[in-house]
Write a sequence for this structure.
């Protein structure tokens, strides 16, 4: 299975990308690698984070209520939902061990949650404006984030 297609259900993009994405919906389509046939279709807000777990058994989407949803790759069904956020989730990642979920928001914050309990464990502040990407180092000790402010932040610590 591969996440290979995003169908945009909104207006065409403009130079003002973050504002234009607000309120738009896209459909994340998980495709079968051999046939190219759709396995799952999942509506998600435009600009919301999508990410696979390292083992390929789970993936993240942002649901219509702006909560990160942990999904089973085999069924596409939700196996966990993290609490709804007041800011729009624009980037997402799993930690390498799959025990944490990292999300960046349009409020400039990077948040870390326990994937099993949904409890938010850290809020990392430092970007001015939207965070558009997050990644976790292979050993899980650092988080990288990039924002519309042009900054790339490397966060270290016990996450």
């Amino acid at each position: 299975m591969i996440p290979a297609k995003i169908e945009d259900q909104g207006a065409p993009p403009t130079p003002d990308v973050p504002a234009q994405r607000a309120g738009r919906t896209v459909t994340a389509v998980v495709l079968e690698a051999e046939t190219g046939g759709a396995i799952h279709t999942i509506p998600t807000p435009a600009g919301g984070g999508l990410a696979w777990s390292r083992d390929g058994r789970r993936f993240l989407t942002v649901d219509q209520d702006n909560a990160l949803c942990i999904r089973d790759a085999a069924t596409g069904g939700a196996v966990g939902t993290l609490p709804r956020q007041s800011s729009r989730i624009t980037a997402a990642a799993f930690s390498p061990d799959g025990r944490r979920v990292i999300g960046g928001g349009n409020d400039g914050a990077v948040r870390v949650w326990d994937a099993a309990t949904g409890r938010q464990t850290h809020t990392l502040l430092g970007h001015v404006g939207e965070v558009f990407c997050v990644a976790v180092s292979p050993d899980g000790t650092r988080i990288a984030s990039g924002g519309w402010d042009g900054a790339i932040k490397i966060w270290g610590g016990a996450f």
Helices lie at 17-21. The mean pLDDT is 81. The first strand starts at residue 2 and ends at 8.
